[in-house]
Design a protein that fits this description.
Blueprint: H1 2-24, H2 29-41, H3 43-79, H4 85-133, H5 142-210
Helix pairs in contact: 1-4, 2-4, 3-4
């Protein structure tokens, strides 16, 4: 009977390990959200969780019993002075089974607590990811959606104003570039005329000298 009880505890431990691996397994957020939602709302999942809570109660009782047996074996070992080889071997076997049962039940309860915390944390992360990926218009009712629509319209109007300002600056830059080109051409024309006048004056001075 005792072996059957601890076999059930071992089966519960294996089930916890499988569920824990399933929770931390990398998968798309949509799948993980569906799994968390099912485990939170499904009737079958709620019944399974209710049964697991009852099983944890029995595991705690088995843990307390294993600790008491381990202390009893240790006290018997300390109080017994003269023992033969058969009694010593029996004490070691009892101590081994008591330690095994203590570790088995303790790890099962500890992993159960970790599993509950991990489930809650993943549920919060999945809900946070879903809410951040959802459209902002459906955050909290029609009133908020209308306010957000007005905010988006304002942002769109500001973006249009900035676009018009950039276009105006582009036109101003194009105008300045044309003016600079025109000034450069006028400067070159005046420079050519000045050089031509210098040449004419030089030729005129030379003709006067020859005369």
């Amino acid at each position: 009977m005792v072996t059957l009880q601890y076999t059930g505890v071992f089966a519960l431990l294996m089930a916890e390990i499988c569920v824990f691996v399933l929770l931390i397994l990398p998968m798309p957020v949509r799948w993980k959200r569906a799994m968390i939602t099912w485990s939170s709302r499904s009737t079958v999942a709620q019944r399974v969780l209710y049964g697991v809570r009852i099983a944890f109660g029995f595991v705690f009782l088995l843990f307390a019993d294993a600790v008491m047996r381990l202390r009893k074996v240790q006290q018997t070992k300390d109080t017994t002075r003269l023992i033969d080889e058969h009694t010593l071997c029996q004490q070691k076997v009892q101590q081994f089974y008591a330690q095994r049962n203590t570790y088995l039940t303790g790890i099962t309860m500890f992993l159960g607590l970790i599993l509950i915390s991990t489930h809650s944390l993943i549920a919060q992360l999945v809900e946070g990811a879903g809410s951040s990926a959802a459209p902002r218009l459906v955050s909290s009712g029609p009133g908020s959606a209308k306010a957000q629509v007005e905010t988006l319209k304002g942002e769109l109007a500001d973006a249009r104003k900035e676009l018009e300002e950039l276009k105006r600056k582009d036109r101003d830059m194009a105008t300045l570039k044309k003016q600079a080109d025109s000034s450069h051409r006028e400067y070159m024309r005046l420079a050519d005329e000045c050089e031509s006048l210098r040449k004419q004056l030089g030729e005129h001075d030379e003709s006067k000298k020859d005369a």
